[in-house]
Design a protein that fits this description.
Layout (H helix, E strand, L loop, with lengths): L10 H13 L10 H24 L5 E6 L6 H9 L17 E4 L5 H4 L8 E4 L14 E6 L7 E5 L8 H12 L3 E7 L6 H12 L3 E9 L4 H14 L7 E5 L14 H12 L1 H21 L1 H38 L7 H10 L1 H9 L2 H7 L14 H31 L2 H13 L3 H26 L3 H10 L1 H13 L8 H21 L1 H35 L5 H23 L1
Helix pairs in contact: 1-2, 1-21, 2-9, 2-10, 8-9, 9-21, 10-14, 10-20, 10-21, 11-14, 11-18, 13-19, 14-15, 14-16, 15-20, 16-18, 16-20, 17-19, 18-19, 18-20, 19-20
The structure holds guanosine-5'-triphosphate and magnesium ion (MG).
Length: 580
């Protein structure tokens, strides 16, 4: 795929390109970094779609304050108490909130009813908040309008961050990633839990604007816990986050008494009050999100490179296994081993060695003159099917054996590496059966033989050679040509050498007598080349099962390049913003 990269586009355009490029990244091979690469891409896409892109697109949209923290810490009750309406479900059942709830000022619904932020969540408008109901789903977000929320700020009541329900945890993390600011709610009993602190450290690293609420604090405990919590926040780089301690109490309307959360309300109102302070919150969080995004480039590229390396290694092994098979076929064609046994016997039956050899001794010139008398009763009728079939058998058996060698080599190599096993299995499932392979090998040789006979018939075009060819017979000339192609004694031993040598000389002489030396050389060369091309195509059929399975992995060098380039452009854009 190709993802266009503009040289100096605005930051939003660069980030949209980055998002598309990340969507095209694939990590199908189970290498050590595959999971982390996949997770990083999915986190970054969420972060871009849920927060960074919408915030760049409309810097003046109301701030989204996500209320997050462990189950039972009182997040839903806090939202209700801030707006003094019972819109969020709050109960003794753990966990209570499954479907996130977004409360916005009456005139600001338009910013949230569209899919501008959190595009993956369906919108449910209004509705009662006293219970979550059986239809509450984590793929939805409920939108409620309330005059209790200051303009320029929306509150989002989130499911618990360390839930026993996996979907809650995932959703809470996604919501926090979409936030302009976090209102982090914990309790005196839970404030030292590990998971919230891991999230808080991440928040510090992302430089997100944040408030921490120590909620449901029993009388007298606040003064003990507060210094410890402050110290921990300080240690994690969150010393600037205001800390609000709220004692456990309910008023007559089942809200946290207004005076207990007055300081928090004032802080939020201060942020929402004017566009300058809102913009400064949005810019701080956006900048942090961008830095966090840029910091993950290395992890994504490393995982992509790992995929590319693993794929290239498999591709290389595939090519080498089949190149070795092709080479072995070529050697068998060249070394004379195909002339063994059956082929030679059949050829000798055709020509009757003794008589031919004697005639040959008198030389090619006189051989030509006497040729017409050779095959008494008409040379053209001499049967050569035995030679053709013997060659077909011998070549086809050799071809199948070489293809199977390549398959076995590849199986040995790929079985020994975890990343290659699933591709091996998929490729083997799409391979032709042994019967189909044997039939294809026999067909390949028969087709070659047919084209070789056509070559022989079309070569002797002038009158004299046509007459000579007719007297010898096209089939005999064809069989002789095959013998000449395979004639070499390099791979033969002992008695085979003598027999094959003599027979090959005989075949050569017959052809020279009919066509002349030059034409024989050309025909031999052409027919041999044709054979190698056809056997190459035969082997290719098997290797294609593997190359197709490698191709569907969609591990694409250009995607890696597009990601690296868009990251580089985003880095430049971020640098410019910081210097402004
Ligand atoms: N008395 C008193 N009860 C509180 C206070 N805060 C929370 N509760 C009670 O604690 C229980 C849990 O409160 P929720 O608001 O449902 O807690 P949550 O954090 O939203 O929990 P999840 O939705 O499960 O994540 C409810 O029964 C609340 O009434 C408080 O300040 N005072
Ligand atoms: Mg809740």
């Amino acid at each position: 795929m190709s993802i266009p990269v503009v040289s100096e586009p605005d930051t939003g355009a660069v980030l949209r390109h980055l998002c598309s490029a990340l969507e095209a990244a694939r990590f199908p091979l189970p290498g050590p970094h595959a999971e982390s690469g996949k997770d990083a891409c999915s986190d970054l896409i969420h972060q871009l779609e849920d927060y960074i892109l919408p915030r760049y697109a409309s810097l003046d949209a109301p701030l989204l304050a996500v209320v997050g923290g462990p189950t039972g810490s009182g997040k839903s009750l806090l939202v209700n108490s801030l707006i003094r309406e019972h819109v969020a479900s709050s109960s003794a059942i753990r966990p209570t909130t499954r479907r996130p709830l977004l409360v916005h000022a009456p005139d600001e619904g338009k910013w949230f009813t569209s899919q501008r932020v959190l595009p993956g969540l369906a919108r449910v408008l209004g509705g009662e908040g006293t219970s979550e109901g059986a239809d509450a789903s984590g793929d939805e977000i409920r939108l409620v309008s309330s005059a209790g929320v200051p303009e320029g700020l929306a509150l989002l009541d989130s499911p618990d961050i360390d839930s026993v329900v996996e979907e809650n945890r995932r959703l809470a993390a996604q919501l926090l990633a979409a936030a302009d600011l976090w209102i982090f709610v914990t309790t005196a009993a839970r404030y030292s839990d590990a998971i919230p602190w891991a999230l808080l450290s991440e928040a510090a690293q992302r430089n997100i604007v944040m408030a921490v609420i120590l909620n449901r604090v029993p009388t007298g405990v606040g003064s003990q816990v507060r210094p410890d919590l402050s110290r921990r926040l300080e240690e994690r780089g969150l010393g600037a986050a205001p800390l609000f301690v709220v004692s456990e109490a309910l008023d007559g309307e089942d809200f946290i008494p207004a005076e207990n959360i007055e300081a928090l309300r004032t802080w939020l109102a201060g942020i929402a009050e004017d566009s300058a302070s809102r913009a400064s919150v949005a810019r701080q969080t956006l900048g942090g999100a961008m830095d966090n995004l840029l910091a993950r480039e290395g992890g994504v590229l490393e995982a992509l490179d790992e995929q590319l390396t693993m794929r290239a290694r498999m591709q290389d092994e595939l090519s080498r296994a089949f190149a070795a098979a092709e080479q072995a076929v070529k050697e068998s064609v060249d070394d004379g081993t195909l002339l063994r046994g059956e082929v030679l016997q059949r050829w000798q039956e055709v020509v009757g060695t003794g008589e031919w050899m004697r005639k040959l001794e008198s030389g090619v010139a006189s051989l030509r003159d006497r040729m017409s008398g050779w095959f008494r009763g008409g040379g053209a009728k001499v049967a050569t099917a035995g030679v053709d079939e013997a060659i077909e058998d011998s070549l086809a058996t050799m071809l199948v054996a070489r293809a199977e060698d390549a398959l076995a080599t590849l199986e040995d190599e790929w079985l020994s590496r975890p990343e290659a096993v699933s591709v091996l299995t998929a490729s083997q499932m799409s391979l032709r059966s042994s019967e189909q392979r044997e039939a294809a090998a026999a067909r390949t040789i028969r087709e070659w033989q047919r084209s070789l006979v056509e070559l022989v018939s079309s070569t002797g075009k002038d009158k004299k050679s046509t007459a000579r060819l007719l007297s010898v017979g096209v089939n005999v000339a064809g069989a002789a040509l095959m013998i000449v192609i395979f004639a070499s004694t390099a791979g033969l031993t002992g008695g085979e050498v003598a027999v094959a040598g003599g027979t090959a000389v005989l075949a050569q002489r017959v052809l020279e007598a009919v066509f002349g030396d030059d034409a024989v050389r050309r025909m031999t060369c052409h027919a041999k080349q044709d054979l190698l091309e056809r056997t190459g195509a035969f082997l290719e059929e098997d290797s294609r099962s593997f190359s197709e399975c490698l191709a569907v992995l969609e591990i694409d060098e250009s995607v890696r390049e597009a990601i690296a380039q868009t990251f580089a452009s985003a880095r430049v854009a971020r640098g410019k913003e910081q210097s402004q």
